[in-house]
Amino acid sequence: MLRRTMLALVASLAALAVSAPLAQSAAVDPERNLSTPTGWQWWKNRSEAQVNALRAAGWRLTDVEVERRAPYRFTGAFVHDSGPYARKGGWWYGKSRDQVVALTKGAGRRLIDLEPYTVGGKRRFAIVTVRNEGEAAKGWWWNYDLTAAQVRADIDKRGIRLIDLDTYVVGGQRRYSYVGIKNAGVDARAWWWYRNVSPAFVQAKAEQHNARLIDIERPRKGKLTVVMVRNEGVYTRHAYGMTQSKLSRFVASNGVRITDLERYGNRWAAVMIDNVDAETARLRSIVLESPYRSGYFGVFAKRVDGPTHVGLAHHDRYQPMSVLKLVPHLYAMDRLDAGEVDLDADAIDWTAPKGKPDEVWCAGQGGQTQSYSSPLRTTLERALRESLNRAHESLLNTYGPETITDRVQALGLERTELYFGCTYPGEKDWLSNRTTLAEMGELFEGVETKQYFPSHWQQVRDEFYGLMASWPADWFRSVVADEAAKAGKSAVVNDFVERIDLRGKGGGADSGNADGTWNTGRAFSYRVTFPTRVRIPRRGGRGPAPEIVVPRAHVGGFFVNDMTAPCLEATAVSQPRSVSQACRDYAEAMGDTFAELTAEAQRTAIREALATW
Fold first, then answer.
1. Secondary structure string (H, E, C) spanning 489-554
2. Residue 175 in contact with residue 11, Cβ under 8 Å?
3. What does the alpha-carbon distance between residue 362 and residue 315 come to, in Å, rounded to a whole number?
4. By Cβ atoms counted within 10 A, which residue in 12, 35, 424, 441 is the most buried?
């Protein structure tokens, strides 16, 4: 009964809890609306000191959740406080209604995020603010402990639209808090809010209104409460029911940043907005139209000793499958440069089933076995060119995955980890192998820039690439032809393509699911050179400089993990008559995607090279 009395009192004081409008704003709030790429972070279970340390380092808090109250722990999203995202921001927690009023209306600030919670039977708030001045100035209001009808009445009375909405239960009754801004000027938008509706309903309404979410709540299982605004061509995503790991991967693959975050138990709901450049967005659209779209994916392209042209999830770790066979190869080449191995004189020994030298045999497996041996050169070549797992495992048995990992991490590949293919009690196996697209690019770039192999660079570099598979230059032909036509240089296409050199390592894995589908992964990391015409200055500067064609190196790669596939690609390729047309179509699309992502990621590099012809 006492709680209901308190609610009536709060409602009667609502007019004192709102702030009067200020001058019309000159800019939208960047944290919810801008898609200009910026640095950003999200963290869970952080102390006040940890949050403030991030703020002191140049990160502005934009969304906060109170996770615990004894001791206080917070989850939050941050943007780098620079460029168009720069604002004079602040945050507080444990504040009463009167203290929030004093910190905002009384101090020239306005709320951008409001989190109500209860301590000892009293309403308290965590808040995020910005200075309500200059281009950030807006007419705004806030309120709390309202029914849905009271929220609607405030919206109509004040002419506002909601930018933050929370829902919670008080005395068994559903209540809401909100922050709203004047729906006028640069902030004028068609907008909608829906409460306690299904995810399917939310999606349908977003599509109907051509809208994007700016706030998401999960009031109960299977239901959402959301605020959405008309979308003006911005790539956005929203998600719910995700674990932290899955949400992190979803964010990385989609190249977005989190603008609103809600946690319930060990699951998350989030609203996200685009955070990549136009070229990366173009590659993302290619992936989203391919079979890879159901998985965790990334794409990367960079000029050696130059800029990154495409970067999607390129700093995020993934399971690289056979691409990681590049790592023991780098280790062996590093030892070759140091004079510690001889590719032809040193032998790699291994044990395999009798009469089956190319089968992987794990200790304790049993059965009749036999010892085998081959030169280091042959073992490296078969591991890379044939992707022979037995050859790779024999290298790990010879040098040790920990030793290899330690060395390549010392060379700069700090997030790369390598484990045995075989499973041994108490140890991780190949399923725990990890790297990033950027680090696989660094592997090649370190060779190209002479960071690696300082003692015998030319000799070891030639062996490094000579033992590696050469991939089809013709994969690039359509992109070269397209860019050449735009530049009026179609006559050079054949000559240009013939000079392309593509070296790298691919990988793939498939495992069956209980429903008959397949959990599939694919990956590729490479170095490619494009012919670039350059002029060599004459000594003394006399006469026209002669022109030569030199190979300019670029690195790149892509991956997809945990993709759901309708059938086994290998079967569709090797036994097409044994599978359905849908399976054959899937296999064809997989092959096309592998080649297309390689070529399209290098479109900028191709355009730059053609400009010299």
1. CHHHHHHHHHCCEEEEEEEEEEEECCCCCEEEEEEEEEEEEEEEEEECCCHHHCCCCCEEEEEEEE
2. no
3. 33
4. 441
Tell the residue number behind the tokens 């972070």, with chain if given: 41
Contacts by residues 406-414 (CB-CB < 8 Å, ≥ 24 positions apart): 407/331, 407/334, 408/327, 408/330, 408/331, 408/443, 411/330, 411/334, 411/446, 411/451, 411/452, 412/439, 412/442, 412/446, 412/451, 413/327, 413/439, 413/442, 413/443, 414/439
CA distance 146 to 208: 29
User: Could you tell me the pLDDT band of residue 543, with boundaries at 50, 70 and 90?
Assistant: low
Tokens 């190869």, located at residue:
329
| Largest Cα–Cα separation, the chain | 98
What is the per-residue pLDDT for 544? Answer: 72
Query: What pTM was computed for the model?
Result: 0.93
**What's the pLDDT score for residue 3?**
33
468: Cα separation from own chain's centroid: 29
**324-337 mean pLDDT:** 98
CB 340 within 8 Å of CB 332? no
Closest Cα to residue 440, out of 302, 246, 252?
302
Q: What is the pLDDT of residues 481-492, one digit of tens each?
A: 999 999 999 999
Whether residue 537 is predicted with pLDDT greater than 80 in this model: the reply is: no
User: How many C-alpha atoms does 148 have within 13 Å on its Cβ side?
Assistant: 10
In 3D, which of 189, 162, 198 has the Cα closest to residue 177?
Answer: 162
Burial letters 225-249, b for 16+ CB under 10 A, else e: bbbbbebeeebbbbbbebeeeebbb
- Give per-residue burial for 563-596: e unless 16+ CB within 10 Å, then b: bebbbbbeebeeeeeebeeebeebbebbeebbbb
Give me the helix-helix angle, 326-337 and 437-448, nearest 10°: 30
pLDDT in tens, 338-363: 999 999 999 999 999 999 999 999 98
Domains of the chain: 1-139 (no CATH), 277-314+471-537+548-613 (no CATH), 321-434 (3.40.710.10)
